[in-house]
Structures are given as structure tokens and as C-alpha cells.
Amino acid sequence: MPAKQTTAAVFELTWWAFTLVLAGLVLLPLYSTVPNFPFFVPNFVYVVVAVTVTRYLFLLEVSWLRDRLVVGALLALALVPLIFYMVQAFNAFIIYFDERGPDALIRGLEAETGITMDKYMHAEYRFFGVWAVVASAVMPFRLIYNAWVRYRARGRR
Questions:
Q1: Which H or E run includes 128?
Q2: In whole angstroms, what is the distance from residue 49 CA to residue 46 CA?
Q3: CB-based contacts of 86: which residues, under 8 Å, 6+ apart?
Q4: Pick from 87, 84, 50, 75: which is nearest to 142 by CA?
Q5: CA atoms within 13 A on the CB side of 107
Q6: Which residues have a Cβ under 8 Å from the Cβ of 97 and sit 6 or more positions away?
Q7: DSSP SS3 for 104
Q8: What does the pLDDT profile of the chain (157 residues) look like in tens digits?
Q9: Which of 96, 95, 99, 93 has the alpha carbon at shortest distance from 128?
Q10: Which of the ends of the chain has fewer CB neighbours closer than 10 A, N or C?
């Protein structure tokens, strides 16, 4: 492997490791305190998508995706159903608490712990959910701009 490819691979693997560790750390309080939390998978998806897509938004010039325009187009198309999934999961989260009450998952906990976990649960789910949806909605435009810049750089107008 040439040095540039090795550097790109190390860069990518380091970011994926950071993302997975961050997702684990964000979900750990919920997993240890509220084990029957029904939204672990969407929450994990939110954290991973938010960090990864934001990284590609800002660091696309130094990523492996920069010159792979076909892969970028496929990624842009794949983001559409992902956005729909994330919005539906977000809506399901809101409906869950509307139907079962605001303390549905913390009834068995001590009062102070329950209040803290309820605030944490709602705040981090909404934070990463909105972040992931917005970043995913912006990403196709970034990929289109990247393709346009690459096309113009090759001397075609």
C-alpha cells in the first residue's frame, strides 16, 4: 500500500473507533440504569450517523470518499431512506412517551436518579437525533458540490 492510502486507512479506522467508543459512552448510562429502554438501536444509529456524516461534511477533502464520485452518489441516494428511518424513530420516541406518560421508563428508579435519567434520555436522544437528521439532509448537497468541483478540476466546463 502506498503511504497515502495507509494514512487514509488509519485516519478512517481511527474515526470509526472514536465514533463507536462515543456511541458506547453515550448509551452506557441508559443501558446500566434503564435496561428496558426500547430505543437503543435508533439512538446508536443517531450517534454514529451524526458523527460520521458531520466528519464527511467537513473533512471530505481528506477522506477516501473525495475522488470516488460513484460511491458518493450511491451514498447520497442511501441517505434518503436513512433520513426517513431516523425521522420515524424520532416520531416513535415522542409517541411512546405521549401514550405511556412522561415517566414510563423511570417508574422503578429512585426519584432523584429517575429525574436525572429522564432528562438525560430526552436531551441526548433529541440532540443526536436532530443532529443526525440535519447532517444527513445536508450531506447530498455536499457530495454534489464535491462532484462538481472534481468535474471542473479535470478541465471540463
A1: helix 111-153
A2: 5
A3: 42, 45, 46, 49, 129, 132, 133, 136
A4: 75
A5: 8
A6: 104
A7: coil
A8: 677 778 888 888 999 999 999 999 999 999 999 888 899 999 999 999 999 999 999 988 888 878 888 888 899 999 999 999 999 999 999 999 999 887 888 888 888 988 999 999 999 999 999 999 999 999 999 999 988 888 887 776 5
A9: 93
A10: C
CA 151 to chain centroid, in Å, comes to 29
Question: What span, in angstroms and rounded, lies between the C-alpha atoms of 129 and 137?
Answer: 12
The Cα angle at residue 116 between residues 107 and 86, in degrees rounded to 5? 85
Query: What is the distance between the alpha carbons of residues 94 and 88, in angstroms, rounded to a whole number?
Result: 10
Q: What is d(CA 31, CA 41) in angstroms, rounded to the nearest whole number? A: 12
Q: Which amino acid, residue 90? A: F
| Contacts by residues 119-124 (CB-CB < 8 Å, ≥ 24 positions apart) | 120/29, 120/30, 121/30, 121/34, 121/37, 124/26, 124/43
Q: Global pTM?
A: 0.89
- The cell for 71 is 460511491
| Cell 434503564 belongs to residue | 34
Q: Which three cell numbers stand for residue 142?
A: 455536499
Extract the C-alpha cell encoding 128: 443526536
108 Cα distance to chain centroid:
30
Are the C-beta atoms of 53 and 19 separated by less than 8 Å? Answer: no
